[in-house]
């Protein structure tokens, strides 16, 4: 059996705050295979981006820590125990990341050439002329017109779509085993968004890269992901293959997210809204974190927190799928 490109087990990431320790990611586990895409979805603040930054160990050292017992393996190699110097050899080389805002991710005072060539010179033993040639070729592969001209320009001279393509080109320069895309289509219009998603699909096929796609847009993961991880308040609520999750969601939170998506075949006055608010991570209740917003909450939901239960090939954190379920309140 092939070793997964990425294997995350019981990941717990905490932050030290003035009010105490805040656990932003609690017990997250998943795998990503080569040539496959895992989508991580959920509301803002649910722990999606912290999960990706934990994998790369890009968290602030003074305030954040990955708790003992957490495991992040890249092709069987443990990353949580590696030094920062060792991680520098992995970031951009074996694991690449596309950040949310391409304008703030690219250095505004450096040309595209300077920023792309640096990636090759840092991770591959080649000369500057060869690095430039490869950079131009990568820009051509991601569909940027006149790459010989564009490579000499600054980020502000490119459109939002072009900047995002540059970010993807930089991320794929060293043919990484894993590509982490954190909201890669943020602030792009729908036409450019479709082009970027199509580009990522094509590059995944060409390079057999594993992709971790982080988004709050259920429509994007429907067309991109092979499996979906639904997060809420730092916990995994549901983990299933895409087809099963969309045809038969198991968790009430997943159900609410899907109901909030506009549909072309239905005419409604108002979109569905999940009632209530997300609890503070500093003051999570000692019972199910979704219970107070859940339309199906039972008596046991207000007594203790559920574990992840097996439901066929899927996993779900809901008592309704366990032998402990004792009916609604």
SSE blueprint:
Layout lengths: L5 E12 L2 E13 L4 E5 L6 H9 L7 E3 L4 E4 L2 E2 L5 H7 L4 E4 L3 H4 L6 H12 L4 H14 L5 H4 L9 H12 L6 E5 L7 H18 L2 E5 L3 H7 L2 E6 L2 E7 H6 L4 H8 L49 E3 L2 E3 L13
Parallel strand pairs: 3-9, 3-10, 7-8, 8-9
Antiparallel strand pairs: 1-2, 1-4, 1-5, 5-6, 10-11, 11-13, 12-13
Report the radius of gyration as a whole number of Å.
Answer: 21 Å
Instruction: Specify the overall morphology.
Output: globular
Low-pLDDT sequence parts: none
- Can you write the helix and strand succession as a string? EEEHEEEHEHHHHHEHEHEEHHEE
Strand content: 15-25%
The side-by-side strand order for the widest beta sheet comes to 7-8-9-3-10-11-13-12
Mean pLDDT: 91
Q: How many beta-strand elements?
A: 13
Distance between the termini: 45 Å
Helix content: 25-40%
Major beta-sheet overview: 8 strands, mixed
| Main structural class | alpha/beta
Our count of helices gives: 11
């Amino acid at each position: 059996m092939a070793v997964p490109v990425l294997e995350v087990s019981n990941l717990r990431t905490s932050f030290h705050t003035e009010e105490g320790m805040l656990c932003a990611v609690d017990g997250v586990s998943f795998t990503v295979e080569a040539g496959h895409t895992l989508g991580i979805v959920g509301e803002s603040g649910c722990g999606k981006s912290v999960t990706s930054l934990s994998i790369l160990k890009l968290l602030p050292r003074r305030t954040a820590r990955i708790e003992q017992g957490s495991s992040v393996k890249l092709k069987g190699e443990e990353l949580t125990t590696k030094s920062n110097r060792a991680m520098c050899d992995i970031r951009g080389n074996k694991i690449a990341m596309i950040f949310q805002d391409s304008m703030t991710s690219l250095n505004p005072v450096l040309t595209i050439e300077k920023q792309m060539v640096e990636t090759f010179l840092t991770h591959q033993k080649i000369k500057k002329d060869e690095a430039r040639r490869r950079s131009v070729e990568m820009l051509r592969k991601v569909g940027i017109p006149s790459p010989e001209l564009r490579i000499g320009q600054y980020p502000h001279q490119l459109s939002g779509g072009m900047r995002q393509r540059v970010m993807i080109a930089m991320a794929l320069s060293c043919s990484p085993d894993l590509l982490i895309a954190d909201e890669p289509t943020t602030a792009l219009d729908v036409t450019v968004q479709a082009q970027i998603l199509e580009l990522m699909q094509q590059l995944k096929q060409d390079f057999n890269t594993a992709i971790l796609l982080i988004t709050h847009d259920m429509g994007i993961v429907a067309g991109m992901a092979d499996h979906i991880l639904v997060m809420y308040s730092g916990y995994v609520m549901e983990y299933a293959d895409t087809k099963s999750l969309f045809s038969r969601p198991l968790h009430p939170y997943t159900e609410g997210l899907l109901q909030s998506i506009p549909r072309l075949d239905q005419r409604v006055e108002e979109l569905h809204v999940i009632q209530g608010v997300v609890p503070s991570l500093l003051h999570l209740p000692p019972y199910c974190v979704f219970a107070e917003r859940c339309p199906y909450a039972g008596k046991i939901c207000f007594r203790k927190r559920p574990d992840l239960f097996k439901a066929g090939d899927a996993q779900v954190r809901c008592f309704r799928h366990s032998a402990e379920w004792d009916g609604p309140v």
